[in-house]
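Reminder to self: C-alpha cells first, then the designed residues, so the page reads top to bottom the way the pipeline ran.
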C-alpha cells in the first residue's frame, strides 16, 4: 500500500481506504454486492464528465461504467493518501481510461461497517 506515515494507526486507515479504492476498479467487485457495500449511503460524485452522481445512481450504474467487465480497464498511478481525521482519509491519484487521463480525489469515511467511499471527483487532464 501507500507508505506515507510512520504512525501505524494512520497508515492502517490510509491502507484501508486505498484497498477500497482499488477494489472498486476490479470488474468482479463492480458487478457484485461487495462493490455496493464500499459506498457510503451519503455518497456523491462529480465525475470527469461534470455529471453529479448520487449513491442510488452510482449503485445502479456501477457494473456498466468504465472498469466493468465489458469496458476499458482503469489504470491508476501516483496514489497518495492523507488522514484528515481519525475517520476520514483523502486519496488523490491519476487515472487513464481508454487513453483519457483524469486527476481523481476521494474521501473515505469510517463508520460502523468499516471504510466507505463518501465523495469522489474526477477532473479531466487536457491532452498535451
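Designed residues (128 positions):
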Amino acid at each position: 500500500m501507500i507508505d506515507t506515515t510512520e504512525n501505524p494507526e494512520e497508515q492502517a486507515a490510509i491502507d484501508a481506504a486505498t484497498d477500497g479504492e482499488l477494489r472498486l476498479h476490479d470488474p468482479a467487485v463492480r458487478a457484485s454486492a461487495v462493490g455496493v457495500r464500499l459506498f457510503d449511503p451519503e455518497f456523491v460524485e462529480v465525475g470527469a464528465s461534470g455529471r453529479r452522481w448520487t449513491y442510488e445512481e452510482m449503485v445502479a450504474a456501477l457494473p456498466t461504467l468504465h472498469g466493468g467487465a465489458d469496458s476499458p480497464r482503469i489504470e491508476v498511478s501516483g496514489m497518495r493518501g492523507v488522514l484528515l481525521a481519525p475517520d476520514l482519509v483523502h486519496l488523490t491519484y491519476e487515472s487513464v481510461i481508454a487513453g483519457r487521463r483524469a486527476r481523481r480525489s476521494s474521501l473515505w469515511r469510517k463508520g460502523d461497517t468499516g471504510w466507505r467511499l463518501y465523495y469522489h471527483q474526477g477532473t479531466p487532464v487536457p491532452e498535451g
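The helical segments are 8-23, 27-30, 33-37, 55-61.
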